[in-house]
Amino acid sequence: MTVRWPGLARLPRTLVIMHDLTVVVLTWLGLHWLAGQAGAPPPIDLGVQLAVVLSVQALVFWHVGLYRGVWRFASVPDLVNLAKAAFLALLLFVPVFLVLGMVPHIPRRVFVPYPLFLVLGLGLPRMAYRLWKDHSLAMAREANATRVLILGAGRAGEMLLRELRSQDRYHAVGLLDDVPALKGAKIQDVQVLGTLDDLAQVARETAASLLVITMPNATALQMRRVVALCDRTGLPFRKVSRLSDQLDHASGSHPQLFFG
Q1: Judging by DSSP bridges, how do beta strands 186-187 and 170-176 pair with one another?
Q2: pTM here?
Q3: Which residue, of 104, 153, 167, 215, has the greatest Cβ tally within 10 A?
């Protein structure tokens, strides 16, 4: 039986809120420190300032819906939302501090750069988390995907690479082509690892589990050579001539050649 703790689902959001409010405090203190380095007098009633800044900024964060988003999907609109929250809070700080008679004691070097520093402090961790999460998921998908070695680095090979990018089930590990000048080149970030004569060696080195022939203009003689090279590897293979071709048929135990 699985035990569910009532507050556990709220924990990630609580941690995010705590992170954001900590960044608010550090930003305000850091700007005061920089102002002091520039010759500004020491801050007066810093505790009251922090109480006002935290209260106002927290209300603005909630008002703009900052915590309805997910760090995993942080994007440009989320950064715009952060900027809106920072500038709106700054506009509210001024009248509150005016009422409290504290504006003369807060340097402009604190007020003016506050939104920029706050957006950086809040935005960079969000984007870093998204990049890390995307990388982790990509590595997981790659580990579980069928490793495809593509024979032919021409237009058909490039189109197949574009198609494979939209499918988590397949991961292109390299290309082979008989044009010597292409060796070492990259197509869609996938490297040309050698010629077709290197097929057996490259297939072993890349741990390929499926060979895909993308040579629609090959002659019958050329195609027999490629098929013979594929047969020697013992790996399943398929000839793809159209993007609509499906790769699933190549999962059988015996290599097969399908013409589109």
Answers
A1: unpaired
A2: 0.54
A3: 153
